[in-house]
Design a protein that fits this description.
Elements: H1 5-109
Length: about 110
């Protein structure tokens, strides 16, 4: 088989077409990579923002825990006070019943 100029020109034209397609594909790929790089940069910024927000949430949770601890201490103190008051009321009630019994006894004695 003899290679003719026409065959060589056809092959060159075909190769040229393939190269053009490859060049376009590389351009598209490069554009996509730039877009992906930009997206990654945006995601990094989002992640940084989320980290800041998480830090703020952690601080708020810590503050709430401290407030809850103080409230629990106040509840404990109030509970202790309520128990002491209840004990005194019980004693006073007993004394009142004793005094009432004494009054009734005195009334009967008259």
């Amino acid at each position: 088989m003899e290679i003719t100029n026409t065959m060589i020109l056809t092959a060159i034209t075909d190769l040229s077409g393939f190269v053009k397609v490859l060049v376009e594909d590389v351009k598209t790929l490069t554009e996509d990579m730039v877009e992906v790089k930009s997206d990654i940069a945006g995601m990094k910024e989002d992640i940084s923002g989320i980290k800041v927000e998480l830090t703020e949430v952690k601080e708020e949770v810590s503050s709430i825990k401290q407030e809850m601890k103080q409230i629990n201490e106040k509840i404990g103190a109030t509970h202790d006070l309520a128990i002491r008051i209840d004990d005194k009321v019980t004693i006073l009630n007993g004394e009142f019943l004793g005094t009432r019994a004494d009054v009734l006894a005195l009334q009967r004695a008259r």
